[in-house]
């Protein structure tokens, strides 16, 4: 659910939507780490000025905490 939302939402924000992928890794029972992989030209767009874009994405994801009972850590990395 969260990965489908992130892929759809972040593809709207970038110049290279075909390069977007999401990986979710379970850290422990109550924490998942979400990594958004994007083209190196688009990483700055996903982070935004002063981190505003990534913070807004984190805010939306925090709403999922109530439904699924998990905390999420969000990272943006360029495609290697």
Describe this structure in words.
The protein has three helices and three strands; from the N terminus they run αββααβ. The chain starts with a helix and ends with a strand. Strands 1-2-3 form a three-stranded mixed β-sheet. β1 (21-28) and β2 form a beta hairpin. With 80 residues, the chain is of the alpha+beta class.
List descriptors.
3 strands, 3 helices, 30% strand, globular, three-stranded mixed beta sheet, 80 residues, single chain, alpha+beta
Task: Please describe the topology of this protein.
Layout: H1 2-13, E1 21-28, E2 31-38, H2 43-47, H3 52-68, E3 71-78
Parallel strand pairs: 2-3
Antiparallel strand pairs: 1-2
| Biggest beta sheet attributes | 3 strands, mixed
Which structural class do the helices and strands define?
A: alpha+beta
Helix content: 40-55%
Order of helices and strands: HEEHHE
Report the portion of residues in β strands. 25-35%
End-to-end CA span: 25 Å
Give a brief description.
The protein is an alpha+beta fold and 80 residues long. Helix content is 42%, strand content 30%.
